[in-house]
Amino acid sequence: MTQSPLTLYLAAPRGFCAGVDRAIKIVEMAIEKWGPPVYVRHEIVHNKFVVDSLKDKGAIFVEELDECPNDRPVIFSAHGVPKAVPAEAAKREMIYVDATCPLVSKVHIEAERHHADGLQMVMIGHAGHPETIGTMGQLPDGEVLLVETPEDVAGLEVRDAHKLAFITQTTLSVDDTVDVISALRARFPDIVGPHKEDICYATTNRQAAVKAIASNIEALLVIGAPNSSNSQRLVEVGRANGCSYSQLVQRATDIDWRALDGISNVGISAGASAPEVLVNEVIDAFKARFDVTVELVETAQENIEFKVPRVLREPA
């Protein structure tokens, strides 16, 4: 049977970022150094395939520190944790390694600096997301106010309109954040912003690559987990930029082939916590059903690498 021709537009950059790569290495190196089991508080990154592969190597994933024994190492996820978590680990004399992405740590440092200057913080982020919880947990209760939309800004009750600063979750939509920042600046003209954009380079680059292909494709598949903020934002960016059929899939088995019947091109991207092996799996699934041509659409090159903590580079 003759296969229909189909062009896959492969967005680049896509997939793993430096922070995710570092976090996974931290878990692997901890298992190698201290032996299994090593405990990880919260999913190290939001991807089931990655989490399952680390479980197979000896990682045990828990939601809270009180689920961890005192005599085994614990690792804090790439999303960051409230200050109370490492404080409790130190109190219990646990070995702990912080795998917080350095770009998230940069936001934590910004928040502490502004707090020291007497400013109340406004955080643009998603309620309940681990990164938001971790960042808000760097300061005392009431010192960080959370907004998600321009409408939230209108309802903000602040201590002093002239002593405010804002920070953002690193995995947000660049376009949506611009609208919230505009609303903040309109209502609070004296509000202080970050010296440099909080949204991380990887999030920005992946969204730009999706924008570059969205108006020229009939469907967009973003490989990523449902609880991955940056992956969900890529789907939204695809829809907002001209590709109405933009869907999140965890892997090839999630593809709705009936919805793709009769189309001639598809865009593919992957969230920052999705490994390239899953991208290749999706490409192979298309090759099994279509006569595929793959075209790479590259909008930026990434060569950033973050070092792992010194404790893992020292002999046991």
Overview in brief:
With 316 residues, this protein is an alpha/beta fold. Helices cover 37% and strands 18% of the residues.
Radius of gyration: 21 Å
What is the share of helical residues?
25-40%
CATH class of the largest domain, named: Alpha Beta
CATH topology of the largest domain: Cobalt-precorrin-4 Transmethylase, domain 1
Could you give the distance between the termini?
59 Å
* Count of all domains: 3
The class by helix and strand makeup works out as: alpha/beta
For this entry, what is the oligomeric state of its chains?
single chain
Number of strands: 12
CATH homology-level superfamily of the largest domain: 4-hydroxy-3-methylbut-2-enyl diphosphate reductase, catalytic domain
SSE order: EHEHEEHEHEHEHEHHEHEEHEH
For the biggest β-sheet, the strand order reads 10-9-11-1-12
Low-confidence stretches: none
The number of helices is: 11
The second-level CATH architecture of the largest domain is 3-Layer(aba) Sandwich
Binding site for dimethylallyl diphosphate: 46, 79, 129, 228-230, 273
EC number: 1.17.7.4
Keywords: 4Fe-4S, Iron, Iron-sulfur, Isoprene biosynthesis, Metal-binding, Oxidoreductase
Active site: 131 (proton donor)
